[in-house]
Design goal:
Layout (H helix, E strand, L loop, with lengths): L1 H20 L8 H22 L13 H19 L1
Helix pairs in contact: 1-2, 1-3, 2-3
């Protein structure tokens, strides 16, 4: 249970950094910011997988903070231009 709470807290931080870097996205609430950060971590992991092979048996490459923010920026850009 604490793993999910920690994942959401890190997601909020990653999503908040992405919101700060991409102007015009201040209207997004805290829940969507957390979801954006979590999804951005997965996108960042998939991008990392393009450049280096993940550990044996791992489905995704663990994304660090920078790749998570880059993934969140990609998702936020898509959200702003295609959904909202």
């Amino acid at each position: 249970m604490l793993h999910y709470l920690w994942m959401f807290i890190v997601g909020i931080v990653v999503g908040a950094i992405a919101r700060l870097l991409l102007p015009g996205s201040e209207h997004i609430g805290i829940l969507l910011t957390g979801a954006l950060g979590i999804a951005g971590s997965f996108v960042g992991g998939f991008i990392s997988r393009l450049f280096s092979k993940p550990a044996d048996g791992a489905m995704v490459h663990p994304a660090g903070l920078i790749m998570s923010v880059i993934g969140a920026l990609i998702l936020l850009y898509g959200y702003k231009h295609f959904v909202h």
